Amino acid sequence: MSIPVLMYHHVLPKNGFICSSIENFTKQMTFLKENNFYTLSSNEFYMYKKGKFKAPKKSVFITFDDGWRDNIIYAYPILKKLNLKATIFLVTEWIDKASEKKENFEITYHNDCKKMVPENPNKILMSWDDVCKSSDVFDFHSHTNTHRDFYFNQSSWEDDLYNSRQTIKEKLGFEDKHLCWPRGYFDDKLVKKAQNIGYEIFHTTKRGINLADNKLLHVNRLAVKKDEKWLKKNLFIFSNTILGSLYAKIKPQ
């Protein structure tokens, strides 16, 4: 058995670049609920990968990248209503900046969001208050401190990884094992640096299967597209070890 890992970024009124519409996201999550899928917590997925947790046969791990405020505005109430769990990988410096003052949420799509981060982060990104208030549905982990965009500060990879893990420890009270690579970029040297800092399990942007094999260096994820029919098809493919492996070789991204 393989467990599919879903990768989202935004949930907004309309579909867009790395953005699911509210309608499609609702249909996808309703499909999971009505078909008795079990949504894993981040620790359950970690323990599954370690071979120490027997996940239900129909399991899925839902992830979001960056920490956009629309995740709280739109995705959170849908997940909460359906009693589903998900994980958000936070760019910790962005969340710090967004927490400095509170402004009204502004519906903004990804390319414009990236432009707004250095000037109006509080309109489009989660605050630490949002993180705390939504922790009944979401787990939170590291997506580095800067996303390597350097909107606020330059830093080395070592500082970026360390500062993110330290911020999560200070704000959320635990030593983070999970790291999601910005844009999916990593190499063996970066993995080693991250391991030395304390990270153990690494989330990529590559398609593929996820087995209970104690191999934590390359968690494969599916960038979610389209509607619940797309989701049904891909859950079928990537829950199957042989089919998922073949499909990932043909279409790795």
Could you characterize what this model shows?
- With 253 residues, the protein is of the alpha/beta class.
- The chain has a single domain (5-250), classed as TIM Barrel, CATH 3.20.20.370.
- It contains eleven helices and ten strands.
- Strands 1, 4, 5, 6, 7 and 10 form a six-stranded parallel beta sheet that branches.
- The two termini are 21 Å apart.
Instruction: Tell me the fraction of residues in β-strands, as a range.
Output: 15-25%
> Which architecture would the CATH scheme give at its second level?
Alpha-Beta Barrel
* Overall 3D shape: globular
Q: What's the average pLDDT?
A: 97
Name the helix and strand elements from N-terminus to C-terminus, one letter apiece.
EEEHEHEHEHHHHEHEHEEHH
According to CATH, what is the class?
A: Alpha Beta
The major beta sheet can be summarized as: 6 strands, parallel
Provide the structure class. alpha/beta
Query: Kindly, what is the distance between the CA atoms of the first and last residues, rounded to a whole number of angstroms?
Result: 21 Å
The CATH topology annotation reads as TIM Barrel
CATH superfamily: Glycoside hydrolase/deacetylase
Q: How large, in whole angstroms, is the Cα Rg?
A: 17 Å
State the domain count.
Answer: 1
Helix content: 40-55%
Instruction: Tell how many strands the DSSP assignment holds.
Output: 10
Tally of contiguous helical segments: 11
